[in-house]
Write a structure and sequence with these properties.
Length: 256
């Protein structure tokens, strides 16, 4: 309580009618990265008490769905689901509300209950963030955006790299509204890649064509992968080095 009384964002939240000071974190994230735009459908994971859902509704004016194991007090214009974000039943409920096309943005400001053991709390934070990422991958439209809170620590870099395999642009960011003593940081992941390959993946393939620059080409379904230094008819093992929404690039690591 004493800390709150000295906290500028605590008082601003009260004055401006937000449920929590966390509202300003999302406002600052959106100001810098334009994650939520007008008309977007947004899902807020771990939404209770609802501060981020309030802001998402204000920013998008569109459909906002808050998901949490706890009950969320009603927010005008926001639909809520009481459920586990790792549950298929919860995913089904989301699709029942938004349709099979998916959602534009997934946000998550959830944190585990802290034990005081930093290594344990960091690991639980990564596990929670990974669950949010897994949910986002299931419900995002191609090109959609994802924001998630993580505690910094030795597992953070690995999780950031994991998120990078599914999005075109991924960065970490600390909003000014985060408390100075907090170890929280946010991953901002933009342009979801709903494609059949991931960066770093290794594949055994046969080159079936040639691109305009002379690189070899193979297809996975209708998705095109360009392979530097390969020719039509080559049977090779490749490693995917870069992925775009409509094509990818790979290098040869072995020939057969």
């Amino acid at each position: 309580m004493a800390r709150d009384r000295r906290d500028t964002y605590y008082w601003r939240a009260k004055e401006e009618g937000y449920r929590s000071r966390a509202a300003f974190k999302l406002l600052q994230i959106n100001e810098k990265f334009s994650v939520i735009k007008e008309g977007d459908t947004v899902v807020d994971l771990g939404a209770a008490p609802g501060g981020w859902s309030e802001v998402a509704k204000k920013l998008s004016g569109g459909r906002v769905i808050g998901v949490d194991l706890q009950r969320i007090s009603p927010i005008e214009g926001v639909e809520t689901i009481k459920g586990d974000i790792t549950s298929d039943a919860t995913i089904k409920k989301i699709f029942e509300l938004v349709g099979e096309g998916g959602v534009d943005v997934v946000i998550c400001d959830a944190a585990p209950n802290l034990s005081g053991n930093w290594s344990y709390d960091h690991a639980r934070s990564i596990d929670l963030s990974r669950s949010a990422l897994g949910c986002a991958i299931k419900i995002l439209k191609p090109g959609g955006h994802f924001v998630v809170k993580v505690f910094q620590g030795d597992m953070f870099k690995g999780f950031l790299e994991e998120a990078r395999t599914d999005f075109v642009h991924t960065k970490s960011f600390s909003p000014v509204a985060s408390r100075s003593q907090s170890a929280e940081i946010y991953i901002i992941a933009k342009k979801f890649l709903n494609v059949p390959v991931k960066k770093g993946e290794e594949l055994d393939v046969e080159i079936t064509g040639k691109g305009s620059t002379g690189d070899g080409v193979f297809h996975i379904q209708e998705f095109v992968v360009f392979v530097k230094g390969a020719s039509e008819g080559d049977k090779v093992r490749v490693k995917v080095k870069d992925v775009k929404p409509n094509f990818a690039f790979a290098d040869v690591i072995a020939r057969y």
